[in-house]
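job 3f2a | input accepted
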Amino acid sequence: MKNQKVLSGIKQKPYFTENNFVLYNGDSLKLLKELPENSIDMIFADPPYFLSNGGFSLHAGKRVSVDKGQWDVSNGLKNIKNEFNFR
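job 3f2a | predicted structure (87 res):
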């Protein structure tokens, strides 16, 4: 299987695998360094964007909250401890 050869360089154990799909839960920038160039079809990253500020937006003609949860609330740039947001 082609995936096994491409992914053999990754030290981290996959979070989920099924058929031709493999999912890793980790730092995508670190994982990418362990892979051959042009070997990945998709990367899905969902870091905290710190957009939850009590505001509203429009979606499908309705007013909706932009709050995603406490994990996404900003306490100011000086208080961000997640280095991913500063790369």
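job 3f2a | Strands lie at 16-18, 21-23, 56-59, 62-65.
job 3f2a | closed
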